[in-house]
Amino acid sequence: MNHCFVDNSCITSVSFHCDQKCGQQNHIPPNIPIFDGHIHLNPIIPKIQSDLVSVRVASPIREFHFINNNHKPDEWLIPNPSSFLSHVHVYPTIGIHPKYFDSKSLYQNFDDLKNYLEISRNDQNLKNKIVAVGECGLDETSMATIDHQIFVLEKQIDLAIHYHLPIVLHCRGTHLYRKLFDCLRSRISDRNMRLHWHCINSNANLHIVDLFLNEFPNSYIGINGSITYETNTERSLMFKNWLVDRSPFLPDRLILETDYPYLPPRNLHGIYDPSCALLATATYLSKTIVDPSQTILSYICSSNKNIKLVCLSSTQLQKRSTTSILIHKNCEDKVNLDYKPILNNNSTNNSHNDINYNNKATVFHHEDSVNFLMYDTVYNSGELAESQKERVPIHSYVKILMMYLA
Ligand SMILES: [Zn+2]
Ligand SMILES: [Zn+2]
After folding, report:
1. 94 phi/psi in degrees, rounded to 5
2. Pick from 20, 272, 333, 400: CA 20 to 30 A from residue 137's CA?
3. Beta bridge partner(s), residue 15
4. What whole-number distance in Å separates Cα of residue 373 and Cα of residue 378?
5. Same domain, yes or no, for 298 and 386?
6. 248 and 192: one domain?
7. Which PANTHER family does this one have (predicted)?
8. Which of 262, 284, 312 is the last residue of a domain?
9. Distance CA 15, CA 30 (A)
């Protein structure tokens, strides 16, 4: 008996092999991971355990990845529910939501935020790494004045720039989109900064969203269950038309998110299981856009790729990637010399220097071998501070390789 269901989609296929005799049209094949770009798991650990029904199976058929937003300073101390199951990965963000700050403790919050980011940067344990700053932004329902909210937002933008982290943005109030965008534009000089503007729906100022996507090439928009809250209003219709018009580039800029425990998709019935909710949102999206080349599965795969691009640093991928090629002295041809070598001094472990190829690949020393590790996606090199980068010519790179091989 399924604990939840989505019209025309097989929920069973989220956690089990389905022989497709169920009669449902849409299935998620096993082994395709599910990435949720924005969730809140912290305050409700016992509830997560009961709501994440689909991940709690004896023989898992896929991996689940959750970008977990720690947006309330009061809850920063609560440990992330990391790895309660080995196929479930939780990546923390940290930030101050415009609704959840108190001016009395604000400067203490800024200090704490900086400390957490500093600790995360130096932490050898990849599991604890903070992957983004946020969610932060502007909110018309906040008790704080807009000027005060802007001040708190700007502080966080500066920290994200300093720590080379992406920013998760929140904006409630159509009239505030322009203010938030202006703030980003004036504060961020590196247009390649990675940005995730979460919860884009019919309440968004879509003109500003277009400007945002054009201005920042590594920016993404988060689509969640709130897109299913259809009304007959002009806004709802405008949003649908906007999705259809922008659909050619949507797969490149889309992040699927649940925002659980908020915003359950209306076409998800039964328990709000966040591991199934993305399927509902993707189902709604493909029904709205009606393009045979864009399917539920293709949206999930594009979103997975984009979440990795925006939030998961190369360091984390390095650990998780399974593609590693052993380089021997006589097979230099395995290395594409077009990759500009960067000596990655970012590693705090000085006994091994990883060589990072524009974040497209890494050579690292592993016991007696040298491994050449290809990332499955191309990363922008914004991860490393300019001061931490040292470009080395190809011959030096070969020399370094030889050193490893000696
Ligand atoms: Zn099925
Ligand atoms: Zn949220």
Report:
1. -145, 135
2. 272
3. none
4. 13
5. no
6. yes
7. DEOXYRIBONUCLEASE TATDN2-RELATED
8. 312
9. 8
Give dist(CA 216, CA 184) in Å, integer. 10
Same domain for 230 and 131: yes
Residue 388 and residue 277 in one domain? no
Q: Count how many domains the chain has.
A: 2
Task: Specify whether 121 is located in the same domain as 144.
Answer: yes
User: How many angstroms separate the alpha carbon of residue 305 from the centre of ligand 1?
Assistant: 25
The answer on 322 and 298 residing in a single domain is no
Looking at residue 369, what is its pLDDT? 37
CA distance 289 to 209: 18
Alpha-helix residue ranges (DSSP H) falling in 221-380: 234-246, 250-253, 274-289, 296-311, 314-320
- pLDDT tens figures, 280-295: 999 999 999 999 899 9
Separation of alpha carbons 388 and 344, rounded Å: 7
pLDDT 10s digits, 22-44? 999 899 999 899 999 999 987 66
Q: Please, is 316 exposed, middle or buried when counting C-beta atoms within 10 Å of its C-beta (0-12, 13-18, 19+)?
A: middle
Coil, strand or helix at 235: helix
Burial group, residue 1, by CB count within 10 angstroms (0-12, 13-18, 19+) = exposed
What average pLDDT score do residues 175-185 get? 98
42 and 179 both lie in a single domain: yes
Q: Which residues surround ligand 1, an ion (CB under 5 A)?
A: 10, 18, 22, 24
The answer to whether the Cα torsion of 56, 73, 222, 32 is positive or negative is negative
Listed residues 252, 285, 312: the one ending a domain: 312
Structure tokens at 247: 């659909």
How many angstroms is it from 297 CA to the middle of ligand 1?
Answer: 14
The domain in which residue 69 lies consists of: 4-312
What is the residue-averaged pLDDT of the chain? 79
- Distance from Cα 233 to the centre of ligand 2, integer Å: 25
